[in-house]
Design a protein that fits this description.
Layout: H1 10-44, H2 66-80, H3 90-99, H4 108-121, H5 129-146, H6 155-158
């Protein structure tokens, strides 16, 4: 069994964790509002944040173009904003922790939920959990970098493992 005694250093760290959790809850709330906004804009051409089903729209056959337009907008955001908004969010957050010393780009905290809201609001088959995790992680990373609490990456962790240590396929 490990030693689970704690020192006084855990108290400010716990306070930071609570702040990050509260911020992530607000991000989740506003992400749902953004999804409602983009669903209303794309499918009903009206301004509102209420969550509505796109099934009752009156676009007819033009409805098939709505996800395409949403994908084009998100593609432009990824091309000219940040490549880090691509993907589900959870694998990218784990990658940032393991390979980049828990450092996440600040603009990912803004672009990831915005691109997710556009994608989901335009009918994309995605969920909001990954972007919430990525945004909370980006905010936590910013706080950790500001307070100098990020884990340093040692040189052996930066290099890929030697080929002789990798399993061979048969």
């Amino acid at each position: 069994m490990g030693d689970f005694t704690a020192t006084w250093h855990i108290i400010p760290l716990s306070g930071l964790a609570i702040c990050i959790g509260v911020f992530s809850a607000f991000v989740a709330h506003w992400l749902l509002r953004l999804i409602g906004l983009f669903t209303n804009l794309f499918f009903y051409q009206r301004w509102g944040t209420a969550l509505v089903s796109p099934a009752g729209n009156r676009l007819g056959a033009w409805e098939i173009l709505v996800p395409v337009i949403g994908a084009l907008i998100v593609g432009m955001m990824a091309r000219y904003g940040s490549e880090r908004i691509r993907g589900h969010g959870i694998p990218e957050a784990i990658e940032a922790i393991l390979l980049k010393g828990a450092k996440v780009e600040p603009r990912v905290a803004v672009l990831k939920p915005l691109s997710a809201a556009i994608s989901i609001g335009s009918g994309g088959p995605f969920g909001a959990e990954g972007p919430i995790i990525m945004t909370g992680g980006a905010f936590g990373s910013l706080i950790a970098q500001f307070s100098r609490r990020t884990a340093p990456i040692s040189e052996p962790e930066k290099r890929p493992p030697p080929p002789e240590t990798l399993p061979r396929g048969r």
